Amino acid sequence: MPDPIVTDPILTDFVRRLKQRAEIADFSLTPWVKPGRTQEWTSHLAGSVNALLHVLAATGAQGSWRLTKEIVDDFAASGRKWAIVLLVRTSQTGYLLPALEVRQRTESGQWSLHGGTYQVTEGPTLHSEYYFREFDTLVFRLLTRGML
User: Fold this and answer.
1) Contact by Cβ (8 Å): 55, 87
2) DSSP-assigned letter for residue 42
3) pLDDT, tens digit, for every residue of 32-60?
4) Region 24-39: what's the mean pLDDT?
5) Three-class DSSP category at 121
6) In the structure, how many helices (H) and strands (E) does the chain have?
7) Domains and CATH numbers, the chain
8) In angstroms, what CA-CA distances link 19 with 41, 72, 76, 124?
9) Is residue 24 helix, strand or coil?
10) 8 Å CB contact between 32 and 41
11) What is the 3-state secondary structure (H, E, C) of 45-99?
12) C or N terminus of the chain, fewer CB within 10 Å?
């Protein structure tokens, strides 16, 4: 299956960095693609991580992301560990949100749902414990926390 088409430069750099780390950290990346999904980056990380990962990039003064309900539902139904990465203006900073945190925010309505998309913005609904300032911190968390 071909890799999804990623045109966002932040996501492109993130994918490049993650593939480099995968080579030395004993995990591999395989696209997790459904028909019709070509403009987003979702992957199965096999090996030492063994989970699904969906990545969104935000630009601008305040981080803002549009997370589709379909992704959340598909991940939840997959029976696998999973997490969402929300990148903030660069490929090296953002939030690594485990499944439990995402489900809590979506089910409680803290992330509003409009037209099948959750509106996520930086602020009180994104806890600082999930924030990473360096790419290697993200990789360390993926490898050690298991995302659950």
Assistant:
1) yes
2) E
3) 776 665 556 778 888 878 889 999 998 66
4) 72
5) strand
6) 4, 9
7) 9-145 (3.40.1350)
8) 13, 24, 25, 32
9) helix
10) no
11) EEECCCEEEEEEEECCCCCEEEEEHHHHHHHHHCCCCEEEEEEECCCCCEEEEEH
12) N
